[in-house]
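Researcher: I'm preparing a figure for a lab meeting and need a structural model of a single chain. I don't have an experimental structure, so a prediction will have to do for now. The sequence is pasted below. Please return the structure as tokens so I can convert it later.
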Amino acid sequence: MSTKIVAHFIAGYPDAAGSLEVARGLAAGGAAFLEMQIPFSDPSADGPAIENSCRMALKNGYTPDQALDLLKTLTSELDIPVFLMSYGNIVFSRGMERFVTQAMKAGAAGLIIPDLVYGRDEGLYALGEKYDIPVIPVITPSIRKERLKEILSLKQEWIYTALRSGITGSYTNLDKNNLSLLDSLRESDSKIMAGFGIKTAEQVRALVPHCDAVVAGSVFVNAVSEAYEKGESLRKGAEDKIRELLC
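Model: Understood. Here is the structure written out token by token.
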């Protein structure tokens, strides 16, 4: 069974040119997918590493328009899908339909907007269907059975399973609770990506039999930060870290 990683990175971090090099490094290192986050000032699910990198990108004046331009560059240059991750405030500020159409035209493989949950999504899922761009629901192991049934009935291409509640970054223990949820989802019509606190190759290996792709984020942001602080190649820092997780 092949190991597929969804590698999360922050557009504009540590700067515009640097984030392009990070994405290239993640792809060269073996990422099966990229998840590009538009930096946002008040994230609801991001831990310190991602929050601080978003803050730095915003301090440098990085904008959603630049992020969408980066997305277009990546989808034309790389041969792997790129998911676009953001928060509702950014979507609202641009106009819901405008945001969805811009993401579609830039080549996004899907949208991950964790605070716009199905049923309270202000029309996001309908727009995704209208413009043929998948919207990816985010669920946790604490999800109610009735709610899970509702999400599964959407038959979205992907479901993102956060392996625990809370914020990203902290190490996540893999146990019967979260792994059994993943196993039950494998019987659905959707492909399953799973992540939150994935830091080691051991965790990746443990998850591979239970999902279609493993999501990792803070571990890459930390690697990029370390390379940046040392004045080393951002591309190599990202590439080396994903190769380490794929071992």
